[in-house]
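In line with agreed milestones, work has continued on tokenised descriptions of protein folds. One protein thus recorded appears below exactly as we store it:

>
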Amino acid sequence: MTFNVRYLNLPPFCFEIRTDISKVAANLQHIYGDTLSCTAQIPDYYLTLSAGSGLRKYIRPQARFLADQQEPFKPIEVDNGFALLEWGMNWCIATTEMRFVIVHAAVLAKDGKAVLFPAPPGSGKSTLTAWLAFNGWRLLSDEMALLIPGTNTVIPFVRPICLKNQSIDLARSWFPEARFSSVAKNTHKGDVVHLSPPADSWLQNTVSAEVVAIVFPKYNKAQQLEITALSQAQAFMALAENAFNFSLAGAEGFHTIVKLVEQCQNYEVTYSQVAELAEFLQQDVLPYAHP
């Protein structure tokens, strides 16, 4: 089999990606563009997306994901291989990276001030992330906040935004000129598409920001905007539940999360209109934040 080998430079990491699946290679080029290189670099992670061999390659072909020869996931339909690659990159960082305290959250910034949006599936986090990223905010991450231990500084890990089900058509109507991946159908998350963020987010993918607010969003199409200020104890417990490597980071991780909630504004927000939530952030959060 012939592998297409590319180096994906996504500060602060570099991935070597080998694939014999043409649809994966095409999506990589379409979504990542200039961050892809054919030139050999020193990767942090060696990843392979393979269509397999033998009869399986021709009868109900599947995509297999390997990271440094480990196979953490079951194979999935070959047409969904790009989504598997994206999830695999998340898995690599969440399970092995110890330089940062990592929180499962979207991160967006404006004027050097960042807001964390930790949220469970179904909260509308990625839809909100996409709207903000294309309306004056800079995307640092859709999936994980990389915090420098002992500080409020968050490091960008710019990647495409993962949109699911109804959010796909909504984002296409909002941003018709944006770059969308092909649709991964009937995954464990439903239908999935990855949306490349605006050029400014890619251009500033090494520019850190200071976290000034933590907002736990909840989407409810039948409810008007409702804002609840959280106590530091409430914010700590909720944020700790969303930390990937909180227990492994030990005392350093604990003190980082404590410092974050002590120095940030902490809210739970239920919303139906992303523009209303954005207005709240712009008028009532950022002006009173002190990074």
The first strand starts at residue 4 and ends at 10. The CA atoms of residues 218 and 270 lie 5 Å apart. Residues 246-263 form the longest helix (18 residues). The chain has eight helices and 17 strands.
